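To the structural biology subgroup,

Please find below the input and predicted structure for Stage V sporulation protein R-like protein, which we are adding to the shared reference set this quarter. The sequence is reproduced verbatim from the submission form. If anyone notices a discrepancy with their own records, reply to this email rather than editing the shared folder directly, so we keep one authoritative version.
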Amino acid sequence: MTSRRHRRDAQREAARLDEPVREAGALAKKLGLDPYPVNYWVVNYDEMNQLIAYGGFQNRYPHWRWGMTYDRQRKTDQFGMGKAFEIVNNDDPSNAFLQESNSLADQKAVITHVEAHSDFFKNNQWFGLFSDEGDLNAAAMLERHGETIERYIEYPDVSRDEVEKFIDAILCLEDTIDQHRSIREAAEDRDERIPDDIRDQLKNLNISEDVRREVFDDEWVDRVEEAEREAAKITAPRKDVLAYIREHGMRYDEETGKAEEMEPWQKDVLDMLREEAYYFAAQKMTKVMNEGWAAYWESLMMGDERFAGTDEFITYADHQARVLGSPGLNPYKLGKELWEYIENTTNRAEVADKLLRVKGITWRNFTEEIDFDEVQRLLATDPVIDSVSRETLDDLVELGPDDPRVDHKMLDRALSGDESVDVDTYPWKVLSYEGLAERHYSLVKPQNRGFISRIRRSELEQLTRYMFDDTRYDTVEEAIADVDKTVGWDRMREIRESHNDVTFLDAFLTEEFVRSNHYFAYEYSQSSRQFRVSSTQYEDVKKKLLFQFTNFGKPTVAVYDGNFDNRGELLLGHQYNGVVLDMAQAKGVLERVYHLWGRPVNLMTITKEFDDHEVEVARRRGREPTPTEHAIRVRYDGEEFEMHDLDSDLEERIAAGEIDYDTKPDDWL
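Predicted structure (tokenized):
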């Protein structure tokens, strides 16, 4: 009975949402978005929590972590620490799941949010790294993986505990992939097979000791070993640790006490989970961009374009305020503010470009000669575009048949009485992309007044550097009339195609943005034993953010040697960037990596040690103590851990200093 009642409730909710889904998709396309088709599904509270636990999909492989994630999400909602309004997955078509208990205002907000997410999935190149491998059908891929792993569990000679233990080991390394390349390209960096111990091979040959001494003397064996070591040497760190273990990893057989070849099912599971790691990588790499993009277009559609009805707007405003007001590093808020800043600066540059072409205006006298109040008045939206209703359709006609701001086909339908073109509810239907760009032009919004006047002389000088026709207009009015009001949105779509969070922050988080939005950096103080504001300088804030988003915010670990010390041991290196590893967690990971390698494993890293006296002196003097850095190698042989000093040449190799911002904070500041 409960199941049938739920189905009826879901069907009623789906029927209620039919129009918002259809119209939100049409509005998104009018605004220049190009999303995947989206299938919307109405689910209940428990189903939503299960989908969240499964990462947005209905079917995953059997594993204990899904239950843990489900329980955490249920408690988060139960105790008022965060409600899930929707979840959408990157697929073609995308699938979005709406909770049936949401209000209509929340459902509309979710739908507009989802349309923007789907546009981002389809058009961002980092998502394309995976989908370019073939037709994107992620749901089918994950379901296939789940069914395959389920079958392995049912094998009579394979236990569920054994499969889950193997999956646990892989999941410890799921972020140690080369996320800047496709899964196919990352796998092309193969090296020579790690050589087996030649002395062991000779023992297995059926030859006499005299022949062995005569033909295969120790000098010859040493030369062969050295040659094989050179052939197998990794010339550059292998970032795709999972791929390397797939090529060379073994398993420790407790019965024989030796490393044995992985079972076929183990290699298959490793391949599947590595594929899933590459699939989810783009979402981790673009969290700020993607959530900010969705929040921006949701806000424009729901608020500025009045997709939220009059009786729904307060509920929606409260919903978005809670999302954007969440404490800590909030990707929705940071991302939305950055997209708005990009829109504003692009529009400002377009206005300045036109004004610098007015006779007598130069970058030197710009701020003295330009009347910014007059510019603001001239930029104001045409009232005919700003206030569209059924009563004002004749005003749109008077703009003329060639006015690019009007969707003349839809206007004709509205004038002919086509009831599907409800202009009072959806005024955007009779406007084109150009018309909507003017209708929502960022520089005329109240919160952005004065933005043009804040332009710096350096920016003006940069604009004139390659300007040739700098006397195109006789008056400011002529120049403003020629301003292209679509450039902000056009530029945003260009950026959406090519960037990830690290490059996005690097390129667009400027001093002006940091100051106007009141961002600051904070850190844990060793002397005061609490967190404190460390800087309000934009360079420090920017570097702190870049550091936090590099490699998904996780330690960067790569393979440095698969035959360390010529003993078949794995040597991993933590690319040190000033932040030390949690050694307890690092040891736990090594224990699991040993399960995948079958032989001893090593991890190079750098630790920090603080002298108690130095800490006390620093506390009294109001400064931070200087730590002593110590390069070490942690070795695990399946039973115990050993700590070794790291050779200087290896220490140099793990010092991160590439363009991906793996640099020490001391170098930044």
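Summary notes: The longest strand covers residues 601-609. Confidence is low (pLDDT under 50) at residues 658-669.

Regards,
Lab coordination
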